[in-house]
Automatic annotation (TrEMBL):
The chain crosses the membrane at residues 40-59, 89-106, 118-137, 149-168, 188-209, 221-242, 248-269. It comes from the Bacteria. The gene is uppP. One of its GO terms (molecular function) is undecaprenyl-diphosphatase activity. InterPro entries: UppP (IPR003824). One of its GO terms (cellular component) is plasma membrane. This is Undecaprenyl-diphosphatase. The keyword Hydrolase applies. Pfam families: BacA. Catalyzes the dephosphorylation of undecaprenyl diphosphate (UPP). Confers resistance to bacitracin. The lineage of its organism: Bacteria, Pseudomonadati, Pseudomonadota, Gammaproteobacteria, Alteromonadales. Keywords: Antibiotic resistance, Cell membrane, Cell shape, Cell wall biogenesis/degradation, Hydrolase, Membrane, Peptidoglycan synthesis, Transmembrane, Transmembrane helix. Its EC number is 3.6.1.27. Its main location: membrane. It comes from Litorilituus sediminis.
Length: 270
């Protein structure tokens, strides 16, 4: 990989992992449009590690509280309180991650073979862009995460599983369902980001295992730069997205998705 490819792909992963515009689409498109070679398993592992570290570090207080409270719910640690909300939230996130794990386990080969095309990305970019815009316009309530309940968390988890289809956007579809369930923009984004932690960890672990079992050479320079750039861009993205969300809403991202989707359709069909 050239230096410019490393920089562009790492920044794309870091920025688009948490924006509602689909990271998978933006990582697939350079090879589709520019003819770049696949970045390789090692680089995929690096950018996943970078984005995972960013979201865990940003929400370190929440993650720490949930971890302690979760152990308390199973009778381990100083806080053996099953009614602690942090413990409930940890269970919701763990259980809501199961659909994505199952969908990835049984559907990944089909997705890899049939759904990683520019045409599919164009269709999902447009479809889920419209849904995000609809949810943002229609959302009137301001339900707290505490009132989401396990049922609501599982619905968001099922949406996260659908996001394995390229172009859907994991953060986009989970925020869409969160808004439809009455969460505020900030609460929908926060739950989406917390839900991403086990999902990114699973994806990174799967890619790491594939890398260990493969005979592919490792470009340590690409891994180092990719991980660092993905971490920095992802951390900045989370921080400023949460600051600007109530001011700008979802519409700028909806418009971007619609423009991108139409452009891709023109590229594919022209």
């Amino acid at each position: 990989m050239s230096t410019i490819e490393i920089i562009i792909l790492a920044l794309l992963q870091g920025l688009t992992e948490f924006l509602p515009i689909s990271s998978s689409a933006h990582l697939i498109l350079p090879s589709q449009l520019l003819g770049w070679q696949d970045q390789g398993l090692g680089f995929d592992v690096a950018v996943h590690v970078g984005t995972l570290l960013a979201v865990v570090l940003y929400f370190r207080k929440e993650v720490g509280s949930m971890a302690v409270a979760w152990f308390g719910t199973v009778g381990i640690g100083p806080e053996k309180n099953t009614q602690n909300f942090d413990g409930k939230l940890a269970w919701w996130i763990l259980l809501a991650t199961i659909p994505a794990g199952l969908f990835g386990l049984f559907g990944k080969d089909f997705i890899e073979e049939h759904l990683r095309s520019a045409l599919v990305i164009a269709a999902t970019t447009l479809l889920f862009g419209f849904l995000l815009g609809f949810a943002d316009i229609k959302a009137k309530e301001n339900t707290s995460i505490e009132k989401l309940g396990l049922k609501g968390a599982m619905l968001i988890g099922i949406a996260q599983a659908i996001a394995l289809i390229p172009g859907t956007s994991r953060s986009g579809i989970t925020m869409t369902i969160g808004l439809m369930l009455g969460l505020s923009r900030e609460n929908a984004a926060r739950f989406s980001f917390l839900l991403s932690i086990p999902a990114i960890a699973m994806a990174g672990s799967y890619l790491t295992l594939k890398l260990i079992l493969s005979t592919e050479g490792v470009d340590w320079q690409a891994i180092a730069y990719g991980s660092l750039l993905a971490f920095a861009s992802a951390y900045a993205c989370i921080h400023y997205f949460l600051i600007l969300l109530d001011k700008i809403g979802m519409m700028p991202f909806v418009i971007y998705r619609l423009i991108l989707g139409v452009g891709l359709l023109w590229f594919v069909l022209a």
